[in-house]
Amino acid sequence: MFSAILSACGKEKTANSSGQKVLRIGYQKNCPLVILKERGTLEKALKKYGYKVKWIQFQAGPELLEALNAGSIDFGRTGDSPPIFAQASGSSLVYVAAGISKYKGSGILVKKNSGINKLSDLKGKKIGFAKGSSSHFLLIKALEKAGLSINDIKPAYLQPGDARAAFEKGAIDAWVVWDPYTADAQRLPNTKLLVNGAGLTSDRDFFVASSSFAHAHSDILKIVLNEVQQSSDWANHHHKETADMLSPLLGIDKQSLMIALNRRTYGVQKISNNIVKEQQDIANTFYKLKIIPKKVTIKNNIYNIYKGNGKDDRK
Which residues form the Solute-binding protein family 3/N-terminal domain (predicted)? Predict the structure, then answer.
């Protein structure tokens, strides 16, 4: 059990002269850390170590990672693609844990009457997606499967809110996105999920920290990840309560959130060799297509705060 591994904390000293320490956590509204934040359990767990928690919200992963590199936050969570761009820009971030694959909630949405019934039908179509995101990679792999490339479609670089509006108005022919936006859009009239991420991408979260904080305070990170796992276990067994919690925060109705929750498992994993390979494949793909300016070696930024090689890779 992963949580059992997490329970053993290190022996490092985290005290400073002021006696009051602050753990600065970067989060996005739609991420596992929101559940942890709303439940308030981390504050209780860290109080006896003299820590208080400061939560800082970001609109997107790249902004969060810029703050991490600048020393404005200590720890955060992003999707799989932003850390690769950060590494390519010279960030010293370290990956400390991964989330469980959530490919079922990521996919390509089209209108039922669009005439797009298979991946090859995307040729020549205008497709909305967030540049440099997990959806960007999903689209690349989906096109490859159909014998196409990104040059065979008309890309529209749009964040989820703008893409949703464009999709509803018919300004784009297809929309590539992740849950709960996928689930919410699936409930629109005349909308269907062409494909999800099965066989194309793992689409997992990554928990990252500044290199300096990870090396100095691995004991605190173990406590944080243990609390993430505990809140994840709660969410996995309390879908209705989780939907009630997230709905007002995300502005998405509970029915859509229930669809998303029913096809996702929250949790924390050690970063195995398989997970490193998954992430390296994304980095290699982005470099090959000149989306990032230089090669990135994922393993150079892995910080294993646990004993052993971290071969747990449960789905």
Answer: 22-238
Judge if 2-101+204-250+265-301 and 103-196 fold alike in CATH terms: yes
Written as six digits, the tokens of 286 are: 């982005």
Rg of the chain, C-alpha, whole Å: 20
Contact at 8 Å (CB) between 61 and 26? no
Residue 107 contacts residue 193 (beta carbons within 8 Å): yes
What's the DSSP call for residue 171?
Answer: S
Which CATH architecture group holds 2-101+204-250+265-301? 3-Layer(aba) Sandwich (3.40)
Torsion on CA atoms 246, 247, 253, 254, rounded to nearest 10: 60
pLDDT in tens, 103-140: 999 999 999 999 999 999 999 999 999 988 889 999 99
Query: Per CATH, the architecture of 103-196 is what?
Result: 3-Layer(aba) Sandwich (3.40)
Measured distance CA(3)–CA(138) in Å, rounded = 30
Domain boundaries, the chain: 2-101+204-250+265-301, 103-196
> Checking phi first, is residue 203 left (phi over 0); if not, alpha (psi -120 to 50) or beta?
left
The token duo for 301 is 């930024």
Using the Cα atoms of residue 48, residue 52, residue 57 and residue 61 in order, give the sign of their dihedral: negative
Place of tokens 């308030």: 40
Sign of CA dihedral 28, 29, 32, 34: positive
Is the Cα dihedral 203, 209, 215, 216 positive or negative? negative
